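2 proteins. here.
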Amino acid sequence: ENGRNWRASHRLHLLGINMAKSPQITHQLPVPSGVTITLGENGHTIKAAGKSGKVERIVKIDGVKAAVAGSNIEITGNLREANTLRAHFANVLEGVQNGYKRKLKIVYAHFPFSLEVKGKDIVIKNFLGEKQPRHADLIGQTKLEIKGADVMVNGVDIEEVGQTIANIRQATRIRNRDSRVFQDGVYPVEL
């Protein structure tokens, strides 16, 4: 009898169903002045506009509700899920108010290479002396500024900025060479 209960709860655990009750929590996230927000159904969609730009984010998390209460966003639900939704909303509010800036550095020892932006495409020329240029995608509203060996990635959405940086890093990945010798690439300097 006891073994059967253990097996049933273990099966539920493997399916991602937690038998333990998670504590309920309510967060009050203040909305900065100069930022306008609208929440969609059940608070899973947030649209925010501020001095840096506009962001729309859809976050589907079960067991959490969000609503505008005065100059705050009130998030109610299970502890884990409420904290996750709060973090997403805080990133959106920070982005529309101040924006996100990340600095990258072009590093090479063998062949000087350059980055060039053409629309939504980032072209990496002469990387490791290759004749064919490499390409990376510029995601969403992200802007790329190149000044010599310094690259600034600016944007309103932290996910778009991070994904653009990841695309550049992936495009300059070195394969089939000794990584101790060939350390050319584009590296983050300031986060």
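next one coming up
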Amino acid sequence: IKSGDAAKDKEKGNSGGLSAQLEEIARMAQMLEKMNTGEGSLDQKIDGAIFKLPTRMLFSPGSAEITNSDSMLFLKRVSDIITVLPPNVEVTVRGFTDNTPLPRDSKFIDNLELSSARANAVIRVLIRNGISKERLNSAGYGDTKAIASNDTDEGREKNSRVEFTMRVAGPSNTSKKSVLDTLNTLNKQGE
């Protein structure tokens, strides 16, 4: 994206223009990539970015309590990044588990409840770190959205994760296009 594209959108009266949104997404992805500790993965999507983090970095097995100082420091870094993002970037924290049954003495009914509690625990830390609750959403999916086989330790670790989905809110003309298609279209329009 050319740096002048947002200015061109403003000149055309399109203050929330497509170019500006794409620039915000690219900036957001760069910040998340710099923050990445090698433990998670970053995927750029049409309208934002998803940072996936193994739950073992934040939670003990079967727990939704964040007590580890390294986890709190990591979430402080996430909060710092969210703080510098434009106010129209919304953050959804999504919790996922593998299909391992919870112990009988668990305070959670099932993995769905555990994943929701984990997502909400992360949200509470982000709010304590100064992020406006109006920018935040949470969801728990339990073991319903596996991204790997639950038959191996490696697969279960991939499935048990917390995702930070950061997306630019507002109308978008790119609802079904890939980022590459959109960038190509913008470059052709700018020529």
